[in-house]
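Archive transcription. Copying these from loose printouts into the bound notebook so they stop getting lost. Printout 1 of 2:
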Amino acid sequence: MPLPDPLTRHPIQGWKGTAFLKAIVDHPLIEVGDYSYYDDSRGPEHFVARCVRYHFDFVGDRLIIGKFVAIAQAAQFIMNGANHPMGGFSTYPFQMFGISGGPDVTAQAHRGDTRVGNDVWIGREAVIMPGVTIGDGAIIGTRAQVVKDVPPYAVVVGNPGRVVRTRFPDETVAALLAIAWWDWDADKIGRNVAAIAGADIDALRAAV
C-alpha cells in the first residue's frame, strides 16, 4: 500500500488530533523528516508553541527530528534558551529585561543542537533536555526525562532517564542502522512494510 503524502496535515481519516510535522512546522531552526508526527487532542498544530520551549533565535540552537518519529501529547523539548548564567552571584537574566551590567546571555556557551533520530517513539509528557541526541529506533517512555544521549534502539524510562534495555540484539541493531530503511523512497518502504513492522531482518536485507 502506498504511503500518504508527508505534507498531509491530518493523515488519519476522521481524526484531527494527529498531524505530520512537516505540514505544520515552519520555523527556521527546526528540521523535521518525512512522516514524523505529533499527536495532541488539543490540536497538533500548536506543536512548536506547546512542545518546543525556550527556543530563542538569538541562541541559534536547532531542533532536528528525523523521519518516522512518533511524538505523544505534551512531550517537551527544552532548548538552550532555558539556561541562565551561573558564573556570578545571581542567575537572574538581567540583560533580557534591558538591564545593563549583567553578562551577555547571547554569548553564553550552550549544549548544542537537540537531535532525534529516525523511527523514534517519544512518550506522553517526556522531557528532552538541551543538546541531547536520541539514536535511531529508540523509545522514550512516558514522563521520562532525557538528560544525556540515548543509544540507537534503547528504551529509556524514569527521571533522570535511564536505559532499561535495548530493543534488539547488537547484531540486529547494527544491521538496521546499516539498512536505514527510513531513507528508502516511499514506494520501496510501502512494499516492505510487512518486513519493517514484523521484525523480519532477513527480508529487509534482501530488499536492500
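Printout 2 of 2:
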Amino acid sequence: MTSNYFKVIRTGINSTFQDKGRSNLYHLGIPFSGAMDNRNYLLANKLVQNNLNNPVIEFAYQGPHLKYVGEGINIAITGDVSFKIKSKNSEIDGNCYETYKINNGDEIDILSTNQSVYGYLSLSGKFDVNYQWGSCSTNTKSNIGANNGKKLQDEQTIKIEKIDKDFRKKKLNHFNSKIEKIRVIKGTNFDYFSQTAINNFF
C-alpha cells in the first residue's frame, strides 16, 4: 500500500472521482460523465497547480469526512462549501478557493454546500485511480470509471499516487480570477428594470 492515503470516515451524499469526462463515445453507448461544474473543477486543479484534467473528488450537498495519513500535502476546495480542517491541536473553518497544507493525522470534514449543489476537493499530486476510455470519471449508473464505478464508501482507503513537493501556497479571488472585464449587451427588455436595479447589476 502507498504510504500516502485518505481514510473515509463519512462518504457524504454523492462523492465520486471526476475529471473532464469521456468524449466521442456516445455511438458506443458510453456516456460523457465528467465534472458537473466545469468551472469549479478547473479552479480546483489550478489552485493546486495540477494538470487541468487531474482527478478530483466531486461531492453534492454534503461532502466526505476524510482522515489523511502520510507526508504533508496541499489541498483546495472550490464551490460554496462549509468545511473544517482538524489537526491534533486545532480546528479551523476553511475558506474555499484557498490552499491548505495538511499533515499526517489531519482531518477534512466537508459539512455542506451552501448556494450551490456541487463542490470539489483537489490535492497537490494525484489520486491513484483507474481509467476507462481515457477518463477516470465515475458514472454510477453505468458502473464505469474510478472506484469501480461506485461512490466513495465508508472506511474506504483512497490512495495517493504522487505528491507535488515543489508546491507554493495559492489563493484565488474566484470572482476576479483572470477576469478583468465582462462585456454586457443590453437585451430588448433592459428598460423594464429600474435604474437602481441596473446600477446594482453593473
